[in-house]
Amino acid sequence: MPAIRLDGLTKSYGKARGIVDVDLVVTPGEVFGFLGPNGAGKTTTIRTLLDLIRPTSGKAEVLGLDSTKDSLEIRRRVGYLPGDLALWEWMTTRQLLEHLGRLRGRIDTRYRDELLGRFAVEPDRKIKNLSSGNKQKVGIIQAFMHKPELIILDEPTAGLDPLMQHATYEVIEEARAEGRTVFLSSHVLPEVERIAERVGIIRNGRVIEVETVENLKARTVRQLEVRFGAHAPTTAALRAVGGVTEATVSGDSAYVRIEGSMDPLVKALAAYEVRSLRTHETPLEDIFLAMYRGADDAG
Amino acid sequence: MPGEVFRRVLSSRKRGLIGWTVSLVTLMFLMVIAYPAVRDQDMFADLMEQYPDFVQQIMGLGSGLSITSPAGYLNSQVFANMLPMLFLIFLIGFAVRETAGEERDRTMDLLLAYPVTRERVLVEKLAALLGAGLWLGLASAATLMVFGPLVDMDLGIGGYAGATLSTVLVAWVFGAFALALGAATGSRAVSIGTSSGVAVAFYILWGFAPLIDAIEFTNVVNPWYWALAGDPIVNGVQGMNALLLAGITAALALVGVWGFRRRDLGI
To answer: Is residue A146 domain-shared with residue A236, that is, in the same domain?
Structure first.
C-alpha cells in the first residue's frame, strides 16, 4: 500500500491556479521530493492530502485512506508543516507544543524535548518574539514530535540558516532510517537532490516528471565557463562533444552547456590548456526545459 | 483531548475578558450610584412620558414601567439597550476572530491538520463564546446585586436573573450568527457586517413593531422581542422564550457547522 496515491487529482480555481490530473505514488519508507517553482501547485496538492481543500475531481489516498472520507484518521497518523506557517503568537513554544500534543491525545514528549534541544529553541519565549527562522523550527518540531508514519513538509527549510537546514535534513534522514515516509516540497533542486530518493516535478499544475534523483542528476544541465591558454577550441569542436547542447567561444574563453555526464567534455578539454573552469548552478527553469525536451523526444 | 480548543480560545481571550469585566463592573457601579438622582426627580418620569412611543419602547419602558422605579430605571438604562449592545459588540468580535479571523491568520490551517473535526472546532469555539457571554452577564448582574441595596434598588433574584439571561441570550443568538457566517464564508467583512447589521435592524424593528401594524408580524422572528417579551426584569425568567432563543443559537451554530464542513479552507 503506497503512502500517498494521487489518481487524476484535479483542483480548479477560476483561471490560472490549481492542479490538473495529477497522478503520483509515494512508496512507504522513501523520502519523496515534490519540486516545482512557486505557484506551480505544490501547496494545493499538499492541502488536498489533509482535506483542507477538496478535489474538484480525481482522488487522493493517504496511507491507503481516502483523503476526504477518512481525513481524521489520516491526520492522526500524519505530521504536517504548512508552507506559510502561522502559529498562535501569544503562546510560548512550550505552551504551543503542549496544546498541539493534546490535540493528538497523549504523545510521548521525549522526542519533542530532544528536538527542542537539537534545534536550539528556547521553549519559554513567546512565539511573537521569535525570528521567522525560529518559528519555522517550531513548525518542524511539531511535524515530527509524535513520530508519525508520514511527514508532509511544505517548503521545510524556507528561512532557515544553513546549520538548521542541516539539522532538518538530519531529522528527515532519521525518520527515513526508521522506515517512516517523508513527502516534502521544495523549489530548490539541490535540496531535493540532497535528501530525496525520488522527485516529482510539477509545473503549471501538472506533474511533468517523476524520476529517481540518480536519473535526474544524469540529465542535469550544467553551465560552464572555461578559460583557455594559448589556443581555444572552435565553437564547432565544442558543440561536437557528447552531451553539449550549446557552446560559444569568444577569445580565450568559452561558454558551454552540457546535459548529463561531464566525462566527454572533460576528456575533450584535456587536449587544451585549461586555465580555469567554473560551473554554475543550474536554474530550475533550465531543468524544466530539459525535461520538456526529453518529453518531446520521447513523443 | 476534548475541550482543548475551548481552553485555548478562552485563555487567548483572557486579557480581553478581564478588561471587559472591569469596565462592565465600573459601568454598572456608576449606573447604581446615578439611580438616586433619577429616582428623586419626578420630572424624569414626566419627561419620558412625553417621548415618542418608539423611544419609550426601545428604552424598555413600552409596557408602562416608570423610569423612576428600579425595574424601569435598569431596563431603560441597562438591560433593554446598552448592555445587550455591549455584549453584542464583544461576542460578534469574538465570533469573527475565532472563525474567519483565525482562518485569515492561517493558524486554522495548522489546527485542522491535526486530528480534530471541523464540527468539534466550531462547537468548542461556540462553547467558549457562550461561556464568555454568560460570564459578562453574571459579572454585570452581580455588581448590580451587590451595590443596588446601597440606593434601595433591588429587583429581587428573579428580576436580575430574568433581565440578565435575556441580555445574554440576545447576544448569544447574534454571536452564534456571526460565528456561523464567519465559519461558512471565511470572510470577516461578511460576518461582522451581516451579523451586526441584522442585529441592529431587528432592534429597530422591535422598537417600531408595537406602533406599526404592518411590521408587527416581524416580532415572530425577532430575537429582541423574544428576549424582552413578558418583561423578564419584572416577572423573572420567561422559560419558553429563553428556550426558544437557546434553540435559535444552537440552530445557527449547526448551520455554521454545515457551511464550514463543506468548503475549502482559505489561505
So the answer is: no
Asked if A87 lies within 8 A of B264 by C-beta distance, the reply is: no
Domain that holds residue A263: 221-281
Distance to chain B for A138, nearest Cα, Å: 12
Residue A298 confidence (pLDDT): 39
Residue A104: which of B112, B115, B264 has the nearest Cβ?
A: B115
Query: What value of ipTM does the predicted structure carry?
Result: 0.90
Ranges of chain B with pLDDT below 50: none
Judge whether A254 lies within some domain.
yes
Which of B12, B107, B265 is closest, CB to CB, to A86?
B107
Is-contact B129 B94, C-beta < 8 A? yes
With respect to residue A134, please indicate whether it lies within any of the assigned structural domains.
Answer: yes
Co-location of A200 and A259 in the same domain: no
B191 CA to chain A: closest CA distance, Å? 21
List, for chain A, all residue ranges whose pLDDT scores fall below the cut of 70.
15-16, 281-299
| Residue-wise pLDDT tens digits, B56-77 | 888 888 777 888 889 999 998 8
The set of residues, in sequence order, having a beta carbon less than 8 Å from that of B89 and lying 6+ positions away, is: none
Given A193, A217, A241, which residue is the final one in a domain?
Answer: A217
CATH number at A238 reads: 3.30.70
Give the E-state strand segments of chain B in sequence order.
none
How many Cα atoms sit within 13 Å of B120 on the Cβ side?
Answer: 14
**Per the CB < 8 Å rule, is A50 touching B113?**
yes
Which three cell numbers mark A296? 518531446
Does residue A69 sit in the same domain as residue A133? yes
| Chain A residue numbers touching B105 (CB-CB < 8 A) | 86
Question: Does any domain span residue A120?
Answer: yes
pTM over 0.95: no
